[in-house]
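Table 4 source record.
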Amino acid sequence: MGKHKQRGAFSRNVLLEKGEIIIISIIAAFLVSIVFVLALGENPFAAYGAMLQAVGKRYGLAETIAKATPLVIISLGLTLAVRGGLSNLGGDGQFYMGAIASICVGIYLPEGWPPIFVWLLALAAGAIAGGLWGALAGFLRARFNTSEVIITIMLNYVSLYWIGYLVHGPLQAPGGIPQTRALIPALQFPKLIQGTRAHTGILIGILAALLVWFIFRRTSLGYRIQAVGEAPKAAAYGGINTKRYMVIIMGISGAFAGIAGMVEVYGVHYRVLEGITASFGFTALLIALLANLHPLGAILGSLFISALTVGANSMQIDMNVPTSIVNVVQSLIIFFMLVMPQIKVDFMGRFKAITRKGE
C-alpha cells in the first residue's frame, strides 16, 4: 500500500513538473514573439488583445471549436503512435482516405436510412480506410525496416493525388467544380451553435480522448503499446510480437485520422474537395507534443492552438499583423519545451553549487 502511494505521488510530481515546463514554454514563446510584433511596428499588447477579444466572441468561440474538432482526433492517434515508439507523419493522407470513404457512404446509400446508422457506417468506413493507410506504413516498417517517417510523408502525396483524381473524375459532382456531391441536410451533423461551423462532432473527439485514456490506463493493449515504445527488446523478450504491434499501432493511429476525416466532412464541408486538410497532420503532432502525449491534454491543446489561429485572423484584420505570427509562437513553444528541461537542470546545478559555497 505504501509503495502504491509512493508511486502515485511520484507520478503526480512528474506530471506537475511537465505541466510547469509547458506553461513556462508558452509564456516564454509569447514574450519572445513580442519582439517580432514590435519589428512590424505594431503594439504587441493591442495585437494580442485583439486576439483574445476575437476568441471570446460567439463567432470566435464557435470557430475555435470547429477547428479543434479534427485536431483533437488526429492528435490522439499521433499520441498513440509516439507512445508506441513510432512517428506517424501521415495524418493528412489518412485523413483524406477516411474522408473519401465516409463521403461515399453518405452519398451512395439509399435515402431514407436513419442518420445515426449512416453516421456509424461512415465512421466505420473512415476508420477502416485511414487505418489501412496507416497499417501499410507500419507493415513496411516491420517487414523491411523502412522509415515510417518517410513512408507516411510519401503516402500523404499518394492520397492527395488519389483524391485529386477522384474529385476530377469518377466522384466529381455535376457543375465542373473538383468536389464530390454534397451530403443531404439530414446527414449533416447538428450545429452546436446555430449559424456557425461548430458542430456536435466535437463530442466524438471527447469520447475518443476518453477511450485512449482508458486504453493506456486500464487495458493490456495500452500496456503492450507502451512496452513496445519504451523498451522494444524487453517487450520482445517478454513475448510481445513487436513487429505485429508496429502494424497495429500505425493502423490504430491511422484509424483516428480517418475518423477525423469523416467528422470534418459530415460536420463542416459536407463534401470532399482538394485542400480539405489544411495540414492538420503536422498541427496535430504539435498538439500531441504540447499535451505531453496525454489523451485528455490533447483536447486542451487543440482548443489552444485553434484559438491562436482564430485570434490571428482577427489580429491581421484589426492590427495588420500577419497570421504567420501564430507559426512563430507555435515553433517557439516547441523550442522552449525542448530546451527548458536542460536549462532547469543547469540552473539547479549552479544554484546548488552556489549554496554549497555559501555554507
